[in-house]
Design a protein that fits this description.
mainly alpha, A middle domain of Talin 1, 2 domains, two-stranded parallel ribbon
């Protein structure tokens, strides 16, 4: 009897899942601008309903004595709410830019994915005597619903949050670039030399079992010149990002490639992007003096970095630079 019930619930769940996945794909497209925008408060209210439904589902599915019909009815009600959540979320994207639309879609999709994981596991566990893992799975749905409520609701907020996250990554890049050390025969920075010597002394007393996997971060004089130019270059990017946080409808997501050819291509693309952002910023009715200065400083750093990358010494450093790791 339990085997037949599980088979029925599996077919039912697949049918609902296929429908919800089609809805997700459909709602990836931007809604028509002529539609009325759905207030975000309606999405929040529906998220609360989904959270409550997950609680009810958790209580029903953890009891081995719950009738099959009750479980199927709960599943039907649950998916209707998920469909409603997707529909309302899609309606709030009227007039939204790509960044805001992406945030809204990702938040709603997360609620759906957590719900599907919960229900799949519940169906798989049907007929089992051990169902204590069901309530915690419902808890993941609650968390996703709470996270959805924190989704940005305006283009400015969405872009600002994205740029802030990019700024944190860029700051990490600058810090790690500054931590790169010159080789023992490089007099670029005496303090860095002393740190490198101390670290070498410390490592000589440690376990060397993994030494072959440690690529090290000592740089030759030529590599150090490029690294110093990169510090200036990325620092100026950070200044631009900070200024962009104050300007609506602008944003960038940057990362440092490690091959010289890729750096050259990326630097050209970044330069074009900054030029485009500056041109677009001029159309906005906001003060852009500091932003313009940041762009000018960035241009100087970029030209210096490109000059270093174009030197014969830099071309010979490709194998060495490919061994450097800068984590984000």
């Amino acid at each position: 009897m339990a085997k037949a019930g599980k088979k029925y619930l599996t077919r039912t769940l697949k049918s609902y899942t296929d429908g919800i996945q089609e809805t997700i794909q459909l709602f990836q497209e931007a809604p028509a601008s002529t539609l009325d925008k759905v207030p975000w408060e309606q999405v929040v209210a529906m998220a609360d309903q989904v959270s409550k439904q997950a609680t009810i589902a958790g209580l029903l599915w953890k009891e081995a004595t719950t009738e099959l019909q009750a479980l199927e009815e709960n599943m039907s009600a649950y998916f209707k709410m998920l469909q409603g959540l997707l529909l309302l979320s899609h309606g709030t994207k009227v007039g939204a830019g790509p960044t805001l639309s992406s945030c809204i879609h990702a938040s709603a999709k997360k609620v759906v994915e957590c719900s599907l994981t919960f229900l799949r596991e519940a169906v798989l566990s049907y007929g089992s005597r051990s169902l204590t893992h069901i309530p915690p799975l419902a808890g993941t749905v609650w968390e996703a619903c709470e996270s959805l409520k924190k989704t940005p609701t305006t283009n400015y907020t969405a872009i600002g949050r994205g740029i802030t996250q990019a700024a944190v990554s860029v700051k990490d890049v600058v810090r790690e670039l500054k931590d790169l050390k010159p080789g023992n025969n490089d007099p670029v920075d005496d303090a860095l030399d002393r740190d490198a010597a101390a670290e070498t002394s410390h490592e000589s007393h440690s376990n060397h079992s993994s030494s072959e996997d440690d690529l090290g971060d000592d740089l030759s004089p030529e590599e150090m010149i490029i690294a110093q130019s990169a510090v200036s270059f990325v620092s100026d990017i950070l200044v631009i990002i900070k200024e962009l946080i104050q300007v609506d409808n602008l944003g960038a997501c940057l990362y440092p490639p490690q091959e010289l050819t890729s750096i050259k291509v990326a630097s050209d693309n970044i330069s074009s992007a900054v030029t485009g952002m500056k041109a677009e910023a001029l159309t906005l009715e906001v003060s852009l003096e500091r932003f313009s200065h940041a762009c000018e400083d960035f241009g100087k750093s970029l030209r210096k970095l490109q000059s270093e990358l174009g030197s014969p010494d830099a071309t010979e450093l490709v194998p060495g630079l490919q061994n450097l790791t800068v984590s984000m």
